[in-house]
TrEMBL record:
<dbReference type="GO" id="GO:0032868">
    <property type="term" value="P:response to insulin"/>
</dbReference>
<keyword id="KW-0539">Nucleus</keyword>
<dbReference type="InterPro" id="IPR035861">
    <property type="entry name" value="SOCS1_SH2"/>
</dbReference>
<dbReference type="GO" id="GO:0035556">
    <property type="term" value="P:intracellular signal transduction"/>
</dbReference>
<comment type="pathway">
    <text>Protein modification; protein ubiquitination.</text>
</comment>
<comment type="similarity">
    <text>Belongs to the SOCS1 family.</text>
</comment>
<keyword id="KW-0734">Signal transduction inhibitor</keyword>
<dbReference type="GO" id="GO:2000406">
    <property type="term" value="P:positive regulation of T cell migration"/>
</dbReference>
<dbReference type="InterPro" id="IPR036860">
    <property type="entry name" value="SH2_dom_sf"/>
</dbReference>
<feature type="domain" description="SH2">
    <location>
        <begin position="70"/>
        <end position="145"/>
    </location>
</feature>
<keyword id="KW-0341">Growth regulation</keyword>
<dbReference type="Pfam" id="PF07525">
    <property type="entry name" value="SOCS_box"/>
</dbReference>
<comment type="function">
    <text>Essential negative regulator of type I and type II interferon (IFN) signaling, as well as that of other cytokines, including IL2, IL4, IL6 and leukemia inhibitory factor (LIF). Downregulates cytokine signaling by inhibiting the JAK/STAT signaling pathway. Acts by binding to JAK proteins and to IFNGR1 and inhibiting their kinase activity. In vitro, suppresses Tec protein-tyrosine activity. Regulates IFN-gamma (IFNG)-mediated sensory neuron survival.</text>
</comment>
<feature type="domain" description="SOCS box">
    <location>
        <begin position="152"/>
        <end position="201"/>
    </location>
</feature>
<feature type="compositionally biased region" description="Polar residues">
    <location>
        <begin position="8"/>
        <end position="17"/>
    </location>
</feature>
<dbReference type="GO" id="GO:0016567">
    <property type="term" value="P:protein ubiquitination"/>
</dbReference>
<dbReference type="GO" id="GO:0005634">
    <property type="term" value="C:nucleus"/>
</dbReference>
Length: 202
């Protein structure tokens, strides 16, 4: 169960969009270097990376999200909820978070209607804000909630509703052999690269 205070609502999104000046920096301790505050150039307010490892993780995650077809990039909470409003319960999408210090937001159609939950990224692990469960991979997180008895997530809301035969075959192969066994599948290198570009059951 995710606490209500951790769920994005229209007011918080609108307040972020109306902000014209960066938030004042917190008081720095004596001897600490002064941090430079950069004003975002797009609606997405990505924070600074803490390490090269975090940079690689987010870069790879973004690339795979684009290959998955259900990543919508910069999108307001109103736009996301409008898309999900008439969809079956459990339909979800990933979009850029407009909240400072978060990279992505999960928007999902619940029994009470669409809602959005920020995805935290701390210590190179992903988790839903308010949840104690964390994963080294965002897609493992999504698969976890898809496989849970409650079926919190059922299917992604893709930009292209009808998947190609290639995408359907890739999903079936991953379901059969598993993500970690792609190299052992007797296919050529080109097909292996295709499987590895999105090696998940989503």
């Amino acid at each position: 169960m995710v606490a209500h205070s951790n769920v994005e609502d229209n007011a918080s999104e609108q307040n972020q969009a109306r902000a014209e000046l960066p938030a004042p920096a917190s008081p720095r301790r004596h001897g600490e270097p002064r941090q430079r505050v950069a004003r975002p150039e797009s609606p997405t307010r990505f924070r600074h990376f803490r390490s090269e490892r975090d940079f690689r993780t987010i870069t790879m995650t973004t690339s795979m999200l684009e290959n998955g077809g259900f990543y919508w990039g910069p999108m307001t909470v109103e736009e996301a909820h409008t898309k999900l409003k008439t969809e079956p319960q459990g339909t979800f999408l990933i979009r850029d978070s407009r909240q400072k210090d978060y990279f992505f937001t999960l928007s999902v159609k619940c029994a009470s209607g669409p809602t959005s939950i920020r995805i935290d990224f701390q210590n190179s692990r992903f988790s839903l804000v308010g949840s104690k469960e964390s994963f080294t991979c965002l897609f493992r997180l999504l698969e976890h909630y898809m496989d849970s008895p409650k079926k919190s997530l059922v299917k992604p809301y893709r930009k292209v509703k009808v998947q190609s035969l290639q995408e359907l075959c890739r999903k079936r192969i991953i379901e059969t052999f598993g993500k970690d066994n792609i190299d052992s599948i007797p296919v050529n290198a080109v097909l292996k690269d295709f499987l590895k570009s999105f090696p998940f059951r989503i």
